[in-house]
Each structure stands twice: as C-alpha cells, then as structure tokens.
C-alpha cells in the first residue's frame, strides 16, 4: 500500500475551512466596501458573527485589502466570545504564523476550545497537532480519536486520515477493512488521495477482494483530478493490460501527465517508454532526459538506466566513472541489478579501483535479493577464494540458488561439482541432471558433456543415439571435442550409420579447431578413403571448419574411446 505523505496539513486544512464556509474572495467594489463598513460597525458593537466575518474578509481580501494581523485581531475577538469557527481559524493562524507570531501551543489551545464545541475542522486540526507532536506531546491515540470524531461528522479529510491510521496501525490496531471503509467515504466525496488509496486497496486485495477493474475506476477518478501518483498507476494498468485493454499509447499519456508534475515514477516510466518505443516513437535522447529527472529525484530504476547508458556509450559519451556513480546511487537503495553491476565494476576496475572485497560485498547484497548472476559469482568467489575463504559448501549453496533460477553458468558449475566430487560426494545422476539443464539452454560445453555421459552410460542409461544428438549440437556450435567425438561415432557406427567420410570430416574439423585428441586417428581414417572420397571429405571439412569455428569451452570430461 502506498503511504500518502501529507505536507503542510494544518495550513492546507485552514484554507479548506474558509472555502467550506463559502467565504470566497470577491473583487473590491463600492458595494463591498459599504457592506464592510456595516460589518465593522456591528463588529465594534460586539457581534461575534460580524467579528468572525470581518476576520475572514481580511483573510480573503473581500472588500478590504488583505491584512492578516487585522484578521487575527477580529478573529480573536470572536473567538474569545466562544465562536467555534473563529477559534478554529485563529488556531490555524497561530499554527502557521500568519498575522501572529507562530505559536503551536496557542494553536492547540484554540483548536481545543473549538473541538469542545464539536467543530469538525478543529477536531481534524487538533488531531494533526497530536499526530505531529507540535504544540502538544505526540499522541497517536488522541490523534486517532479526534480524526474519528471529525470523520463521523462527514469531514472528508478526516476520513482520509482515519483510513490511513487504520491502514498503518497508528493509534489503533491495524485493520485494513476499516481503512478501506474510511477511504471509500472520503473517495466518494471526491478526495483524490482517498480515491488513489482505495484503488491501491483494490490492487493489493488488502481489506477488500482484489479487483483490477475497480482499481482502474478509482485510479482514474484520482488521475482525472490531476493526482500524479494515480496517473502513474493508471499508466501501469494500461501498460500491462490489467483491468483495461492493454494500450501503450494510453500508458505513455498517463505517464507523461504524472511526469510533468514531477512524479519520479512517471518520469522513469516515460523514459522507459521512449527507450523502448512503447506508446511513443523511440527516442533515446528523450528517454535520457526523463531518466535523469527521475534519477535526480532518487528513482533507483532511473539511476540504474543512466548507469547503463554511461557504461555502454551508445547514446551518452562512454564514461565508466559516471556509470559507477549512478550504479552506486541505485545500489545503495537496494537495486539488485545495480548492486551486481557495481560488483562487476569493482571486479574489472572500470570506473573505480579494483577491490575484490568490495566486489564481494555488492555481489552478496544482490545475491541475497535473489539476483541469479550475483549468486553465481558469489559461488565462484567461494570456489576460488577470491576475496573470501574458500568454502565448497558455500559455493554449492550459492550455485544452487542461481541454478534453480535458471542461471546456465550455475547449472554447469553444479554439474561439474557433482561429476568431479568437489566438496560433495560424486553423484553422476545429479551431475547429469544439471548438465542437461545447462545443455537445454544452449551451453555448448554442457551439450558436449551429456553427449559423453550418454555415450558411456554414466549417470544415465547408455544411449548412443542421444550421444550423437548432443555431440552434433555442440559440434555445430564449434566445440572442438564434440566435433572430434562426433567423428568417432561415425567411425564406429555408434548412434549413426558407419561412414568413414563423415568420420574424417568431423575428426578433421575437431583437430583443426584445437581438440587435444590424436591426429593419428584422423590420418588412419584418411587411409581408408579413395582419393576422390578423401578430396571430397577434405573440401567438406574446410567448409565445416569455416562454418563451425571453435568456441571457448569449459573443463572437458573423459572422451569416449
């Protein structure tokens, strides 16, 4: 649930109070001046209503020049005669230091007098003083009680605050059903913040059954009143098609409305829209404009995006130091990707001095948030002892976390650990399981290794046809050992029809790509071919060599014989 932060609440509610009384500012004119003269005469004769009206005229500049000290003077006269509205307004003037020296204790005194007469606005204002601890000892229970009194009189802002206190368990036991009930009362009176919070309740399903369509209804009401957080939320619903038909143009429209009001979420989302051409024409310059605005307001996502832009040098000039600067800002806010990138920067020394301890610190922070690549690198640090004491069990634990998320490097690492028995008992079935997972994601070394395991029946039932399938996958990705082994399978006729020409082709490609296996086997196969067959095989081997170039490989397993 988004917590609504209220600013200058007492002052804001004092203004609402004046408007609620219908005391709207009117232009100065002769008729108004005559009316003021009559009002002043009555006020000087002791009429509390006239004193109150004259005070509000001075506040609004109605028929007289705006004069806050004069307003305070006449409101005090009415207040001292027990006029509750005058007491409330006078308290507001003291709370804000308008027309009088700021004095929160005096504000409390006058709010309390009006509260005792049942003034809802005074109850709200005194509740705010207890909540903030201004002019009185902070007391959330007293604040809650006062808000309830005002809310039960139908004051929408008190209803909003009461809902907020129920939602956060402040001054009362947390109760989301009650929070929603009071949000709804305020929302139905048109309070934008309450409409937004009611939409958030429907989104989260807290205190009311989750309902995306109802969330959209209330977000829209608040958004159409110009409430920026609601505009941003409505944009996200259009982006993801929740509760409404997915519409990226509408998403970008609402993001822009929020962004132009300074909402950092809207600014980041609009930047992302420009970066990816979603709902607007792709424009990286505009993306960076909005990312920067959001980043400077503390948006971790935008800070990370700026770091990426400086690191890649594709739109902004390449600047590793600036990349590190923005990655750090995002990382310190808990952005896992930024923590990972900052760890990499400390590892490589790009934009900052190398520091394996710092790298490990940031990898760990990202890893603890579930970042798979950071988990793998943390596991690798425990394997190598880089920046930390070697610990096979810790390495396995972190590799497993990453592997379970589908990180291919971690899956391969676990396969190797179980195959070679590094820190655990050898377990060929477990090794095969993890190698296969990595192989199915396209890891060429894992593809080769499960080919070996199928060929030898290690960790899996022997299946030479499957061995050929996986050797071929790895061979066509440029794995030299897999190319050589595929040649062996053709030579022996295991899993494929025996074929000396194809055997020669793949043995030749494997040797040319750096397989450590003996060239003598290739040469012995060449002797079995006629001159035309050998010429044809050598030509095809040359084509395959160009097509299936050698790629880096991980530690090989024992090859089939």
Would you list the SSEs in sequence order as H and E?
Answer: HHHHHHHHHHHHHHHHHHHHHHHHHHHHHH
Mean pLDDT: 91
Q: Helix content range of the residues, please?
A: 55-70%
The description of the largest β-sheet is: none
C-alpha Rg (nearest Å): 37 Å
Enter the CATH topology name of the domain at 442-547.
Serine Threonine Protein Phosphatase 5, Tetratricopeptide repeat
- What is the oligomeric state here? single chain
Specify the CATH architecture of the domain at 442-547. Answer: Alpha Horseshoe
Poorly predicted regions: 1-16, 18-28, 555-561
- Extended strand count: 0
Strand-residue proportion: under 5%
Q: CATH top level of the domain at 442-547?
A: Mainly Alpha
Count, helices: 30
Could you say which structural class the secondary elements and strand pairing correspond to?
mainly alpha
User: Per the principal axes of the C-alpha atoms, what is the gross shape?
Assistant: elongated
| Termini Cα gap | 64 Å
Per CATH, the superfamily of the domain at 442-547 is: Tetratricopeptide repeat domain
How does this structure look, described?
With 561 residues, this protein is mostly helical. It has a domain of 106 residues: Alpha Horseshoe (Serine Threonine Protein Phosphatase 5, Tetratricopeptide repeat), CATH 1.25.40. The longest helix is centred in the C-terminal third of the chain and has 17 residues. It is elongated. The relative contact order is 0.03.
């Amino acid at each position: 649930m988004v917590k609504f932060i209220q600013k200058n609440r007492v002052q804001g509610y004092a203004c609402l109070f004046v408007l609620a009384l219908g005391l709207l500012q009117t232009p100065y004119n002769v008729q108004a001046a005559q009316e003021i003269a009559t009002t002043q005469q009555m006020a000087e004769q002791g009429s509390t209503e006239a004193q109150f009206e004259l005070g509000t005229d001075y506040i609004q500049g109605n028929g007289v020049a705006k004069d806050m000290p004069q307003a305070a003077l006449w409101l005090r006269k009415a207040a001292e005669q027990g006029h509750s509205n005058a007491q409330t307004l006078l308290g507001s003037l003291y709370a804000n230091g308008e027309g009088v020296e700021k004095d929160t204790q005096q504000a409390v005194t006058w709010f309390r007098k009006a509260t005792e007469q049942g003034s809802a606005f005074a109850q709200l204002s005194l509740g705010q003083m207890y909540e903030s601890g201004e002019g009185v000892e902070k007391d959330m229970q007293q604040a809650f009680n006062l808000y309830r009194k005002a809310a039960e009189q139908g004051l929408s802002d008190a209803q909003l605050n009461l809902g907020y206190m129920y939602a956060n368990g402040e001054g009362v036991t947390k109760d989301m059903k009650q929070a929603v009930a009071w949000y709804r009362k305020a929302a139905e009176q048109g309070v934008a913040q309450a409409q937004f919070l009611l939409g958030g309740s429907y989104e989260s399903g807290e205190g009311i059954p989750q309902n995306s369509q109802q969330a959209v209804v209330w977000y829209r009401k608040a958004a159409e009143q110009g409430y920026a957080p609601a505009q941003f939320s409505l944009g996200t619903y259009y982006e993801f098609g929740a509760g409404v038909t997915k519409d990226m143009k509408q998403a970008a429209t609402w993001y822009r409305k929020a962004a132009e009001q300074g909402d950092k979420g809207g600014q980041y989302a609009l930047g992302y829209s420009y970066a990816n051409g979603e709902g607007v024409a792709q424009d990286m310059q505009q993306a960076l404009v909005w990312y920067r605005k959001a980043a400077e307001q503390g948006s971790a996502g935008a800070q990370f995006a700026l770091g990426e832009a400086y690191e890649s040098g594709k739109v902004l000039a390449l600047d590793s130091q600036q990349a590190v600067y923005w990655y750090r800002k995002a990382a310190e806010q808990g952005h896992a990707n930024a923590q990972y990138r900052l760890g990499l920067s400390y590892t490589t020394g790009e934009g900052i001095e190398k520091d394996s301890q710092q790298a490990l610190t940031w990898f760990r922070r990202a890893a603890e948030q579930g970042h798979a690549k950071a988990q793998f690198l943390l596991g690798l640090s425990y394997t190598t002892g880089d920046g930390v004491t070697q610990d096979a069990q810790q390495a396995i634990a972190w590799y497993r976390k990453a592997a379970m998320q589908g990180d291919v490097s971690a899956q391969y690492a676990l396969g190797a650990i179980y195959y070679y028995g590094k820190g655990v008992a050898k377990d060929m079935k477990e090794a095969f399981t993890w190698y296969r997972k990595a192989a199915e994601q396209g890891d060429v070394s894992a593809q080769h290794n499960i080919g070996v395991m199928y060929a030898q029946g290690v960790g899996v039932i022997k299946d030479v046809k499957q061995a050929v399938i996986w050797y071929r996958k790895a061979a066509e990705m440029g794995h030299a050992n897999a190319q050589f082994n595929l040649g062996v399978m053709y030579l022996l006729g295991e899993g494929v029809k025996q074929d000396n020409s194809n055997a020669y082709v793949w043995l030749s490609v494997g040797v040319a790509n750096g397989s450590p296996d003996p060239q003598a086997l290739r040469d012995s196969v060449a002797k079995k071919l006629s001159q035309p067959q050998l010429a044809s095989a050598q030509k095809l081997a040359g084509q395959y060599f160009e097509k299936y170039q050698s790629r880096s490989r991980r530690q090989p397993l024992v090859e089939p014989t």
